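Summary of Year 1 activities. Much of the first year was spent building the evaluation harness for sequence design. The harness presents a backbone, in tokenized form, and records the residue chosen at every position. We chose the following record to illustrate the format because it has been used consistently in internal testing since the harness was completed.
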């Protein structure tokens, strides 16, 4: 063979290799699965494209290109290690729609009920959600949904002003229950009694009376397992749905499964006979399922719009260690055992449960450029396997003595998400059905990086880290606001640290085992250069046990920085507008450092004398901060070793109305080492998302020259001092923030200790009457009324103490 022939042969081989490399498989709504998948002869389904891609040149990767249109998936698309290296891409971004539902072709007719249409449906399946003209519609329900101006709790919860027992507002009033001919299959949705999330029940029928006969005024139901801090359902914020008799408002619908009839009450101006009607079928649209031994690798999903995934609130029942959460390990997109996979430039529209869920072993996942809105539960969740945690505990009160605890540091296995990225995403209006959820949820994971995301209009936290396992997370350049809109006692950022070290005797454990707080944390968590705003809680809420955090260059616009008991948190160079530091229940030798920050009021401590005396120092160093308020507020906690080197004064800002809080008279803040940081690059920066993103309301800085502090209301009692508490002051005690209480402070020889009352107790009731005002204890302090019994809150449990005659 001549050299020329050899070169020609090599050329033919390279052309063949190039052809293999560039082989694309096309899918179209006009295609057929009998075609060969070329651009001229496209396939009809992703399942067939997957099959063909698996037979593509084994040396190189395949690409599935999906043309514009809506694709109703007949079943979940499962990708395994056999699909490694494959890319699924929409030809035109967001124009190929993958649906977990189906279109209903209905012959509507006017029903006997005024304003209602009905149609026979062929499907024998339960219809979980109904979409008319692309919009999700509410099931028949009571009370009807509220869309009042300024109302944050819309689509779902009742906002009536009445109380339990009011027949006009209570969804479970006996006379209303009696109007439901067959309540089986209906649902009860209620907020947690303390507004710490929500709970859900499926109605199984009418409850039986003492003779075993169904009582038409009472319900039998199952559920309520969706919260890891069990409590009664809220007496006010609750509703029922999927009941035929409650079909009475425009936009509502009801599916009678027995006679295969769909009922719908059109909205004003809506022609239901011409509208596109779709029902939801699938919980999961795409699942990438591998394992640590056989991972799914380098599968990329690009440019799709995802719609129509079923709600999963009744499947949400697994407790996430000792956090307040339970979880359903599933989502519209599910990752299990995946490595180096990407999901980019996708839209997620009105999905019923979790949007994206990374379950157990996952490495190097990237989610970039996505728009997630109106999801029923979480936006993006990273949740490891509890088997990866050493000595896991699953209830809030589940403590183990330290000498019986597994003290080997780090995880037990690799069954957790690690080193994943969420970048340039808008995540908004999530938690439509489940309130103990977050746009980004992290639990039992390591090294999750969240960068340049815009998160807003959500019921609870914008970003939640459920525990210390396993740390190393970085949250930076994000814009997070309009949070905690439907719940309470939380923040735009929320974390817990109820890890192995956390328990009733933390102060002693920490002194004896100073590294215990890091047993579950491989590295510290970092909050850097974010803009936070929470009008119904704290901007940043480091709750129970949250430890080993570095917080710097953050702009806090409303709720301030809360740091509950924990260890070795450092907060520096943060700008806190119209608020301050909220230290709660700090431990001796906590190692906390708060320096070089700008605050605009005195610190707001709570229960700081639970483990410390009135004059014990706070943390390792709380000093060199700037108080943009009167100097008297800076000096309030000098006795605790705070702020002797701090300064106070008046600051000037560049342009607060446009969100620019750059300090212009820097000679003031130079004195304590604060440095300005950029104010113009929080949140998404991609042009596609920047064009639709929203921004927070920017507050006017409250520049004060005189002190503005709330005077404490106190009463002497048998050698003790009672201090009236309300609102956010109660968070440190794990109480409903709408309650009121009296905190007990007493020396060791105090007479009142003989009754069983302890230092740090909260008195919530005296002689059967709730503490309901600052003046409540006045008649007892003056001896006008005797104290016969009190109810105290201790370790978040109620205890009755008899005081004798």
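For this record, the design step produced the sequence shown next.
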């Amino acid at each position: 063979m001549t050299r020329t022939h050899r070169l020609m042969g090599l050329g033919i081989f390279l052309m063949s290799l190039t052809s293999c490399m560039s082989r694309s498989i096309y899918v179209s709504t006009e295609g057929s699965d009998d075609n060969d998948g070329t651009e001229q002869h496209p396939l009809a389904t992703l399942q067939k494209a997957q099959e063909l891609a698996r037979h593509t040149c084994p040396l190189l990767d395949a690409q599935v290109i999906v043309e514009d249109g809506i694709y109703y998936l007949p079943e979940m698309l499962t990708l395994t290690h056999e699909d490694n290296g494959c890319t699924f891409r929409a030809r035109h971004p967001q124009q190929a729609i993958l649906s977990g539902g189906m279109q209903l072709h209905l012959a509507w007719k006017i029903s006997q009920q005024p304003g209602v249409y009905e149609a026979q449906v062929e499907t024998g399946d339960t219809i979980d959600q109904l979409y008319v003209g692309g919009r999700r519609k509410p099931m028949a329900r009571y009370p009807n949904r509220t869309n009042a101006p300024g109302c944050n709790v819309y689509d779902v919860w009742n906002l009536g002003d009445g109380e339990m027992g009011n027949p006009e507002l209570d969804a479970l009033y006996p006379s209303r229950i009696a109007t439901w001919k067959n309540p089986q299959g209906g649902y009860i949705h209620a907020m947690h009694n303390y507004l710490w999330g929500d709970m859900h029940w499926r109605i199984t029928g009418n409850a039986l009376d003492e003779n075993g006969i169904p009582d038409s005024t009472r319900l039998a139901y199952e559920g309520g397992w969706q919260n890891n801090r069990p409590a009664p359902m809220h007496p006010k914020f609750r509703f029922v749905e999927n009941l035929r008799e409650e079909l009475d408002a425009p936009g509502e619908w009801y599916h009678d499964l027995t006679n295969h009839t769909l009922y719908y009450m059109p909205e004003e101006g809506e022609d239901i006979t011409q509208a596109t009607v779709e029902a939801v079928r699938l919980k999961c649209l795409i699942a990438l399922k591998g394992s640590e031994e056989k991972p799914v690798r380098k599968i990329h999903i690009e440019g799709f719009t995802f719609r129509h995934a079923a709600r999963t609130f009744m499947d949400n029942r697994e407790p996430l260690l000792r956090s307040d959460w339970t979880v359903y390990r599933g989502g519209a997109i599910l990752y299990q055992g995946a490595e180096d996979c990407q999901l980019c430039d996708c839209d997620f529209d009105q999905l019923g449960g979790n949007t994206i869920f990374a379950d157990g072993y996952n490495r190097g996942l990237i989610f970039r450029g996505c728009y997630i809105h109106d999801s029923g539960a979480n936006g993006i969740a990273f949740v490891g396997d509890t088997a990866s945690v050493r000595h896991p505990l699953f209830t809030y009160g589940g403590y183990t003595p330290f000498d019986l605890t597994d003290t080997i540091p780090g995880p037990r296995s690799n069954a957790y998400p690690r080193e994943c990225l969420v970048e340039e995403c808008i995540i908004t209006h999530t938690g439509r059905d489940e309130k103990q959820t977050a746009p980004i949820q992290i639990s039992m994971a390591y090294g999750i990086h969240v960068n340049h995301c815009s998160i807003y209009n959500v019921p609870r936290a914008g970003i939640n880290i459920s525990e210390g396992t396993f740390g190393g997370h970085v949250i930076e350049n994000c814009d997070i606001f309009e949070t905690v809109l439907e719940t309470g006692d939380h923040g735009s950022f929320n974390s817990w640290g109820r890890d192995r070290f956390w328990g009733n005797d933390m102060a002693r454990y920490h002194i004896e085992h100073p590294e215990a707080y890091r047993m579950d944390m491989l590295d510290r968590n970092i909050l850097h250069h974010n803009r936070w705003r929470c009008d119904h809680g704290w901007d940043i809420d480091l709750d129970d046990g949250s430890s080993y955090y570095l917080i710097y260059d953050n702009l806090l616009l409303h709720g301030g920085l809360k740091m509950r008991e924990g260890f070795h948190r450092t907060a520096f160079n943060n700008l806190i507008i119209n608020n301050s530091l909220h230290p709660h229940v700090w431990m001796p030798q906590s190692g906390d450092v708060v320096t070089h920050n700008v605050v605009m009021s005195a610190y707001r401590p709570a229960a700081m004398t639970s483990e410390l005396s009135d004059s014990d120092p706070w943390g390792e160093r709380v000093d060199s901060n700037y108080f943009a308020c009167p100097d008297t507020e800076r000096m309030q906690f000098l006795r605790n070793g705070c702020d002797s080197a701090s300064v106070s004064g008046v600051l000037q800002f560049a342009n607060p109305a446009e969100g620019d809080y750059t300090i212009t008279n820097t000679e003031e803040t130079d004195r304590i080492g604060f440095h300005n940081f950029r104010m113009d690059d929080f949140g998404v920066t991609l042009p596609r998302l920047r064009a639709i993103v929203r921004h927070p309301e920017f507050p006017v800085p409250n520049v004060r020259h005189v002190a503005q502090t709330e005077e404490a209301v106190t009463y002497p009692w048998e050698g003790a001092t009672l201090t009236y508490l309300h609102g956010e002051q109660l968070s440190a005690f794990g109480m409903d923030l709408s309650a009121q209480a009296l905190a007990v402070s007493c020396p060791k020889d105090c007479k009142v200790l003989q009754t069983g009352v302890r230092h740090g107790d909260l008195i919530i009731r005296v002689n059967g009457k709730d503490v309901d005002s600052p003046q409540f204890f006045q008649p007892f302090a003056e001896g006008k009324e005797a104290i016969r019994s009190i109810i105290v809150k201790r370790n978040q449990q109620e205890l009755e103490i008899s005081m004798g005659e």
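The helical segments are 3-21, 46-53, 174-177, 506-512, 631-634, 666-669, 687-690, 778-781. Quantitative recovery figures across the full test set are reported in Table 2.
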